[in-house]
Amino acid sequence: MTNTTKDFTADTRASHFDVEKIRKDFPILQQEVHGKPLIYLDNAATSQTPTVVVDALRKYYFEYNSNVHRGVHRLSQIATDAYEGTRKKIQHFLNAKSNEEIIFTKGTTDGINLIAASFGRGLIKQGDEIVISAMEHHSNIVPWQMMCEERGAKLRIIPINDNGEIIFEAYEGLLNERTKLVSIVHTSNSLGTVNPLREIIDLAHSKGVPVLVDGAQAVPHTHVDVQALDCDFFVFSSHKVFGPTGIGVLYGKKEWLQKLPPYQGGGDMILNVTFESTKFNDLPYKFEAGTPNIADVIGLGVAIDYIQKVGYSAISAYENELIRYAVQRLSEIEGLRFIGQAKKRAGAVSFVLENVHPHDIGTILDREGVAVRTGHHCTQPVMQRFKVPATTRASFAFYNTKEEIDALIKALYKVIEMFS
Ligand code: PLP
Question: Which one of 133, 134, 286, 417 is most buried, by most CB atoms within 10 A?
């Protein structure tokens, strides 16, 4: 990531990025923690929310709170327009062919569970295989394990190398006539690795296998074009892209969504119900049973507007520079070992410090106002692969600064001093 021509161009643009102006949009960043300015470096877990998003939620509840798709009254019409307007917005944001391909979920986990349950029920039989990688979040492991156990199918794992990159030849070797789906993370939350998705998807498609992409850590940092990727399913969470919690998106190619049975039954996902049988609704409603999370869908739409206003090219240019700086400064620390050193990375930097448990690091950093994540990051197999119990992870957003990275480094030296 650090030495390409693309990144050099990016740096030039990054120097014009007005981060102080952006920080004003995030009131939560203006506070002190334990008497020190808050330095929020846990963005991979949850990103912060700009004022415009909170204002949109307030407006919804104060001015037009009502159910969607049902009422002919004024408030319901406004709510329905805002809800469906967001679906169109997300269609364009992801460059999906149709707004019928955009399903609102509770988040990434919910989207993967939806596909695992529906795919399992509709298309998986004994002896079939699902391929995932060794760097998946538990959300992209456990739903497949559960489904495989239920259907008598098998989970196959693409191994990763010491840098935290998938071993492509091993992936190739795993694909066979029993493979029914590949489900793979776009950007690893614990290693920061950005996977070569186009190659992964092309290879799967050459064998007739569809691919689900876990985009939870991709959308905050990079523009995703589902048609260019040619993925069959793509999932992400709102709370990692500056939107509210409890909402997310599943994109699915129309031909797949038409083929799959509904995940849950209930209101809104039906056209007609008798005690004998039910006729399911058209897409996308077939997969949205019950009253949806209307306010937060609308909030997510405003968060997407916000990201687009800042602009992905400016975001990735600025963040690339931040990560490069973080890696450079962290490398200066004796006894620090990076976990994950992929050539292509984004968002997060994970490391361990000799003789100090990550939880102690996290606690001491917190006293310095620095919020990082310590633990297994819901990727226990990654910890097993690298033979560490946990790591410390600093993860970045476009409102972070180099001064905050300096503060992280200073706090880490304090940790080292305390343990020496
Ligand atoms: N996948 C990845 C790569 C993640 O980083 C996360 C959350 O950290 C998830 C899935 C799960 O996301 P959520 O908890 O929003 O469903």
Answer: 133
**Model's pTM, two decimal places?**
0.95
Residue 116's Cβ-count burial label (10 Å; 0-12, 13-18, 19+) is buried
- Tell me the CA–centroid distance for residue 277 and ligand 1, in Å: 36
Q: What is the mean pLDDT of residues 13-36?
A: 91
Q: Are residues 183 and 243 located together in one domain of the fold? A: yes
Helices (H), 24-141: 51-59, 74-94, 108-123
For residues 45 and 61, state if they share a domain.
Answer: no
344 and 333 together in one domain: yes
Q: Which two tokens stand for residue 173?
A: 């070797």
14 falls in which pLDDT band (50, 70, 90)?
low
- Is 5 inside any structural domain? no
Q: Which helix (H) or strand (E) holds 320?
A: helix 312-331
- Which position has the token pair 């004796």? 334
Q: Is residue 3 over pLDDT 70?
A: no
Mutate to test the pocket of ligand 1, among 217, 250, 396 (most ligand atoms within 8 A of CB): 217
231 is catalytic: no
* CATH code for the domain in which residue 24 is found: 3.90.1150.10
